[in-house]
Amino acid sequence: ALPVPPMSIRFDQSAGTLSPEGPTLTRRMSDLEGLFRDHAAWQKAVADGDPVVYSVISSPVPEIDRELPQSITTIQPGTTAGELWMTKGHQHPNHQGEIYLGISGRGGLLMFDGTETRWVEMTPGTIGYMPPGWAHRSVNIGDEPYSFLAVYPGGAGHDYGWVLEHGMGLRALSGTDGVEFVDYVEG
Ligand code: M6P
Ligand code: ZN
């Protein structure tokens, strides 16, 4: 990846684009294997059209040490067997921090350090802070798309295996009065 000059990056919310733009990523249900508690319901959703669960658009700032890349993630509203649609979630291999800024919709930021779980509700204008060593997953808790800006150290990396191995402590389900949490393992 090449260094980039000082620049301004424009987010067009209605078009869902960044300019200049970097890599974009689309995660469908099939990309979330092993993450929902109800495996059969997950399989059925994959067979049933494999919907897009979230997408990530990035600025051209490279993911290398000392840079500060940014991305905007948009999670679609939905549930799979009652579990709210979410990102895969990851840990940073070398334990570096990250910040999110809520842009639109309603979401939650679930953090897990291997022992404790924390939940930060995210509305437009909320800054969510992930300290070093806290794995993080985002959840759409509303009925419209939830978008947030992420800014993270370029060398942070994404360890997805950590979440598959340790879970996130809790799961966020859609309850009658909003979000309900259940133990990750028992669900
Ligand atoms: C945010 C940032 C990205 C991350 C994305 C999707 O934009 O934290 O680094 O890739 O969310 O989350 P995940 O990688 O867990 O699928
Ligand atoms: Zn991260």
Overview of this protein structure:
The chain has 187 residues and is mostly beta strands. The chain has one domain (10-183): Jelly Rolls (Sandwich), CATH 2.60.120.10. It is 8% helix and 40% strand. It contains 2 helices and 15 strands. The strands form 5 sheets. A 6-stranded antiparallel β-sheet has the order 3-4-5-13-8-11, with no helix packed on it. The longest helix is centred in the first third of the chain and has 9 residues, at 39-47. The chain is globular. The mean pLDDT is 96.
List the helices and strands and how they pair.
Layout: E1 10-12, E2 17-19, E3 24-28, H1 39-47, E4 52-58, E5 70-75, E6 79-80, E7 83-84, E8 98-104, E9 107-112, E10 117-122, E11 127-130, E12 135-140, E13 146-151, H2 161-166, E14 170-175, E15 178-183
Antiparallel strand pairs: 1-2, 3-4, 4-5, 5-13, 6-7, 8-11, 8-13, 9-10, 9-12, 14-15
The structure holds 6-O-phosphono-alpha-D-mannopyranose and zinc ion.
